[in-house]
């Protein structure tokens, strides 16, 4: 199995505050893993450590072939190119169309060829069923549609791992299921996904490996088979 993420005896801090201690986690290529836990138990800090927003100072951490402990400032953009990050609040640029949002990311990550850019945008929008909406602005889309675009954006550079931080947090139950279906399809195509969520209904509907943050620890939850 190809390991995409491995943390060994890692401690995660926010400033001087210890958030999570003695973290041991492995995620293999093709996995779909949930990260659950109440608000304030460290899910976001865990995610931020993985994409280089918080430094890892204790223990070992490897993600998509990067050593988190020795991650240099200049490496972070390259690390993030190999990760696709999906946020709860979409983080789309409101002053430009969907196509231009996606083009912005591609140009920022070194794409030059106009035809290749256009083709890639069309491919990722097709994957999330938003191919006809590229000319629209974010405010013209529903929340679910905006989140689909955010997922498309995360796919642009063929990431080895998608980090989805509460991707259904701002969506109603029906739309949450639709977004989940998109993530499930992407996972079936071979993308590895780590999804932080507090939506337990989704875990029941789409059971998968589950990590839980609780009392400064992260541990795997064994789901009962019915």
TrEMBL record:
InterPro entries assigned to the protein according to its UniProt record, in alphabetical order: AAA+_ATPase, ABC_transporter-like_ATP-bd, ABC_transporter-like_CS, ABC_transpr_LolD-like, P-loop_NTPase
Molecular function GO terms recorded: ATP binding
Presence of the UniProt keyword Hydrolase in the record: no
Tree of life domain: Bacteria
Keywords: ATP-binding, Nucleotide-binding
Domain ABC transporter: 5-224
Entries under SUPFAM superfamilies matching the protein: P-loop containing nucleoside triphosphate hydrolases
Pfam families xref list: ABC_tran (PF00005)
Protein name as it appears in the record: ATP-binding cassette domain-containing protein
